[in-house]
Design a protein that fits this description.
Elements lengths: L4 H5 L14 H12 L6 E2 L5 E5 L5 H5 L7 E9 L12 H4 L2 E2 L7 E5 L4 E4 L6 E3 L5 E2 L19 E6 L4 H7 L14 H8 L5 E2 L7 H4 L11
Parallel strand pairs: 3-8, 3-9
Antiparallel strand pairs: 1-5, 2-9, 3-5, 4-10, 6-7
Length: about 220
């Protein structure tokens, strides 16, 4: 709450408190129904997933070519610890620079809420209205949960799944949003992290200065 309080004070975000375990599905359903008529696009992301355009300066430009579709599914890029044992100072996007070499088949969806009915698999897939389809970034229709050819040349979704060992330990101390019990052990996190540091990917760093701009300058970067 402390992190988002400045944006609440500036009336730039709306907070819907949603207590209880395993509440992510009803929260997504509520969001769709509440804001269906209020926006052109809705993205359903976790707070460790950072969405950005690979080349354009903002998402409005990048999404404009998908307006004829119900939504676009963006593939995960799985980032690891970059060798940090303790949480480093500074921005996540500057500290954690290494990821798995392969683009992950899992996606998160950016949907046009007037063209979808409800979530099929949390934020990973949605039911569409008759005649509407979901596509990947290359405009290929997605049948099921996964695109046939995962890629991230137009839209990127950096998933900072590990971060430092310290943060992995902390993550084990809380329940996930999608379940009523802890799913992975620390040993499983550490084992997975070994494969999340294969290549360096710095594409998101061009947005770092914008994130650190004084609050009064943020509007110019939307």
């Amino acid at each position: 709450r402390d992190v988002i309080q400045p944006w609440l004070n500036a009336d730039k975000i709306t907070l819907h408190p949603w207590p209880g375990p395993a509440q992510i599905l009803p929260a997504i359903e509520h969001c769709l129904e509440t804001y269906r008529e209020d926006c052109n696009w809705l993205a359903f992301l976790d707070d460790d997933e950072f969405l950005f355009p690979a080349k354009e300066q903002n998402l409005t430009e990048a999404l404009s070519c998908y307006s004829n579709y119900a939504g676009v599914a963006v593939c995960w890029l799985l980032f690891g610890s970059s060798g940090f044992r303790n949480r480093p100072e500074g921005l996540v996007i500057r500290n954690y620079r290494r990821r798995a070499s392969a683009v992950n088949r899992h996606t998160k969806c950016i949907v046009q809420p007037k063209k979808v009915t409800k979530p099929w698999a949390l934020g990973h897939a949605f039911y569409c209205l008759p005649g509407e389809i979901m596509v990947d970034e290359n405009f290929k229709q997605i049948h099921g949960l996964f695109p046939e050819e995962p890629c991230s040349n137009i839209l990127c979704l950096n998933h900072y799944v590990s971060k430092s060992v310290e943060e992995m330990e902390w993550r084990r101390s809380r329940l996930p949003a999608c379940a009523d019990k802890v799913i992975y052990t620390l040993e499983q996190y550490l084992a997975a992290d070994a494969g999340y540091n294969e290549v360096e990917d710095l594409r998101i760093e061009r947005f770092a200065d914008r994130l650190q701009a004084p609050d009064g300058q943020m509007d110019s970067y939307r």
